[in-house]
Amino acid sequence: MDATPVGALLLCRADPETVRPLAHLLRERMLLIPAGEEWSVLVPEGRAWRDTPDEPAEPVDRVLTGWAAALAVASTWPVVALWWDATRAGCVLASGFRRPVGYVWLADGTPAGEDEAMTTFAARLDLDPVLDVQALQTLTRPDPHADGCARLRTLLGLLTRAGVVLRPGLEPGRSTEALREAARALPGTGRIEWAGWRDAVRVELDAVESSGLGPWMLGPRARAAATTQVLVGGPLVLWGAFRRSGGWTAAGVLLLAQGVLGLAYNEVRARATVRDSPPRR
């Protein structure tokens, strides 16, 4: 167990097979588990926010924000990141190219965010604009009986209305090691391990072909979107490297990879179409 209870979870509104190829591109070891009919959860190994001999640790909230943004901009589904450490706990919602929205509580549960974030949170997850928003806003008010991780557990309870169902042992407040051990013991858990760009691209292409999404990645609009990903991803990699932010560097790398993959997929499919076309008479 860690001396400091640092931990994190990434909730993705997609099934594990859809999440898997994008998670590979984060180049981090993770465990992937179903979390309801329409959701999956990624349990990171935690290396990104641990001190190493070469450089100090990066704050867990910054890492998770970068990862959530990377997964969201490279997909069509939202990502909810939950994180906690010895001093704070918080959540981040990333959806497409929109600015991620988040909320933070101090370790004792004191609210330290903007109330409007919860309204945005509910809207982007298609929650009830009245009942669910009212429930979320209770998390922005003082409660002497709830610490930061208790706030996250309450948030998870509210997310069950959106279909989130976390397995036993994956509760906010546990250490990274405890989360990992609990995840390994659950049925249906898959491993995400970086095995190099060639394998990552192969996994991504196989996922595209098997999912039936191939036609959506073809054509002028798809090529324009892929070009945009490349143009945004390059500067983001440089910005993340300058700031020594592993999370945002990963976001840039994932965008670059997705863009290059989209352009390559268009090129490969175009050549295959020409090759398979009957000769003109």
Q: What layout of secondary structure does this protein have?
A:
Layout: E1 7-12, H1 16-24, E2 30-34, E3 40-44, H2 60-73, E4 79-84, E5 88-94, E6 101-106, H3 116-124, H4 131-137, H5 148-159, H6 176-184, E7 190-192, H7 197-211, H8 220-242, H9 246-276
Antiparallel strand pairs: 1-3, 1-4, 2-3, 2-7, 4-5, 5-6
Helix pairs in contact: 1-7, 2-9, 8-9
Structure overview:
- By secondary structure, this protein is an alpha+beta fold.
- It folds into two domains: about 5-190, no CATH class; about 195-275.
- Helices cover about 45% and strands about 15% of the residues.
- The protein contains nine helices and seven strands; from the N terminus they run βαββαβββααααβααα.
- The chain has helices spanning about 15-25, 60-75, 115-125, 130-135, 150-160, 175-185, 195-210, 220-240, 245-275; strands at about 5-10, 30-35, 40-45, 80-85, 90-95, 100-105, 190.
- It has a seven-stranded antiparallel β-sheet, sandwiched between helices.
- A hairpin with a 6-residue loop joins β5 and β6.
- α1 (about 15-25) runs antiparallel to α7, α2 (about 60-75) runs parallel beside α9 (about 245-275) and α8 (about 220-240) runs antiparallel to α9.
- The chain is globular and about 55 Å long.
- The termini are far apart.
